[in-house]
Amino acid sequence: MATSTQEYGTTKATTEAAIELAQLDVDAGDVSLAKPENMRQLLLRRFIRHRLAVLGLIMLVLITISAIAAPLYKHDPEAISLRSKLEPPSWEHPMGTDDLGRDLLARVLYGGRISLAVGVFATGLALLVGTAVGALSGYYGGMVDNALMRLTDLFLSFPSLFVLILLGAMIRDTPLAEYRGGLATIVLVIAVLSWMVTARLVRATFLSLREMEYVEASRALGMSNWHIVVRHILPNAMGPIVVQGALLTAFAILTESGLSYLGFGIQPPTPTWGNMLNDAQTYMTRYPWVAIFPGLMIFLTVISVNFVGDGLRDAFDPRSIR
Questions:
Q1: Do 96 and 88 form a contact (C-beta atoms < 8 A)?
Q2: Is 174 buried (19+), middle (13-18) or exposed (0-12) by CB count in 10 A?
C-alpha cells in the first residue's frame, strides 16, 4: 500500500513538471514569434512618452492650420475702419482692433503665415548650408576640415543682432525686399547667421561615423565618396539634424519677431507678430489687447517648437530608456 502511494506521488509530480515545461515552451514560442519593433515605431513610442512634446505638437498643428485657413476669416487684415479703432475684444472682433480699426484676429492669423514661413524657410536654408559644410569637413578632414571650421569660427565671432540689423538695412533696397514686405530678405539674413551650430554638430557626427565598419566596407567595394556620404553616413546622422532643425525654427521665429519689432524686419502693411508689437508700443498701456495677442502667439509658437525639439531629442537619444 505504501509503495502504491509513493508511486502515485512520483507520477503526479512528474506530470506537473511536464505541464510546466510545456507552458514554458509555449511562452518561448510566443516570444520568438513576436514581431520585432522597427526604428520608426521605437522613435514614435519614445516621442509619445514625452507628454509636453505631444502637447507642443498639437498646439503647433493648430496654429499652423489656423494660419493656413486665414483667408476663410471674414475680415480683411488690411481693411481700415477709423470708426472702429482700438475697440476691445467683442463678438465682431474677437481680439479687438488696432489704431487703424483693423481686425486684430485677421492680422494675427495672416501674421502667423509670415512668421511661420520665415521660421521654416530660414531653418531649411540654414540646415542645408550647415549640413553641407559639416559633412565635407567631417568626412574629408585635414585641410578641408581646417579651412571650413575656421570659416565657421569667423561667422560665430560676429555679433548676431547687429549683423542682422546691418544686413537687413543693406538688402532693404534690393529687389529681394519687394516681396511680402521683405520676406525673402529676412529669410536670407537669418539663414546666413544660423548655420554654424549645425555645421559643427554634423562634423562631429561624421567624424565618428566615417570610421564605422560599413563605411570601410563601402570603400573596399569601390563606392564613390558621394555615394558613401549620401547613402550611408548622412541617413545615420539625421537624428541630431532633425533636433537642431526644431530648435532653429524657434530661433528664426524669435529673430524675425525681434527684427520686425525694431523696424528692420518685415515692413508694413504686411502683418507679422513682430511688427504688430511694434505698432502696439504707443497704445499697450491703455489698450493692452493690441500687444497681448501677438505676444501670446509668439510665446505659444516658440514654446511649442521647443517642446517638440525636446521630444525629438529624447526620441533619437540612444541612451533613452526603452
A1: yes
A2: exposed
pTM: 0.78
Contact between 92 and 108 under an 8 Å Cβ cutoff? The reply is: no
Question: For residue range 121-135, what is the model confidence (pLDDT) as tens digits?
Answer: 999 999 999 999 999
Instruction: Give every CB contact of residue 33 below 8 A, 6+ residues apart in sequence.
Output: none
Give residue 18's identity as a one-letter amino acid code.
A
List b or e across 125-137, with b for residues whose CB sees 16 or more CB atoms inside 10 angstroms: bbbebbbebbbbb
DSSP code, position 97: B
Low-confidence ranges of the chain (pLDDT < 50): 1-13, 17-19, 21-22, 24-34, 322
> Residues 253-292: pLDDT tens digits?
988 888 888 777 787 778 888 888 888 888 888 888 888 9
Pick the CATH number of 51-316 from 3.40.630.10, 1.20.1250.20, 1.10.579.10, 1.10.3720.10: 1.10.3720.10
| pLDDT tens digits for range 157-172 | 887 777 777 776 666 6
- Is the CB of residue 224 less than 8 Å from the CB of residue 139? no
Residue 232 per-residue DSSP state: I
Integer-rounded Cα radius of gyration of the chain: 29
Give the 3-state DSSP-derived string for 116-183, with helices as H, strands as E and coil as C: HHHHHHHHHHHHHHHHHHHHHHHHHCHHHHHHHHHHHHHHHCCCHHHHHHHHHHHHCCCHHHHCCCCH
Name the residue among 129, 285, 137 with its Cα closest to residue 198.
129
Ramachandran category for residue 181: left, alpha or beta (phi over 0 → left; psi -120 to 50 → alpha): left
CA angle 149, 154, 159 (to 5 degrees): 140
C-alpha cell at 127: 540646415
